[in-house]
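Take a specimen:
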Amino acid sequence: MTGRVEWDGKVEALQQSRTLNPRPEAVADPLFVAGEFFDPRDLLQVKYEMVRQVEVEQVSVAVAAAAFGFSRQSVYTARAALAGGGMAALLPGKPGPKGGHKLTEPVIDRLLETLEADPDLTSTELAAVVAEQYGVRVHPRSVERALARRRVAEEAPKSG
């Protein structure tokens, strides 16, 4: 990257915030190629400028997508995210499952029934129940958290 000021730790900071552009070489927009302020490694900056050009400068979606190394669908997605949630919505979501995919509501229901029959069961024993009856391994602490969430939800006042 010729002509660019290298900032100590910038790549590491971008990695930690999950905003390191995996394809900075695909960014061909002149602001990012020649300038020192715009950094093609900064995914948030790249997406924002791409959307800004479409919205403010009336650059076509196809041209903006090509200039910034994204698909046209990515431009539409970024536009909607920015409109709906501001800059923070352009940040990538956290990887991995977005909720309890093992301790589903029916599994928690079964654990509560099991606890009702024997209130002295430990979370380790309840995790064993899940493994035996549902064929999935869960950590005892996950069982504790799921049961605590359910109790809080049941105690919350119903609005209506």
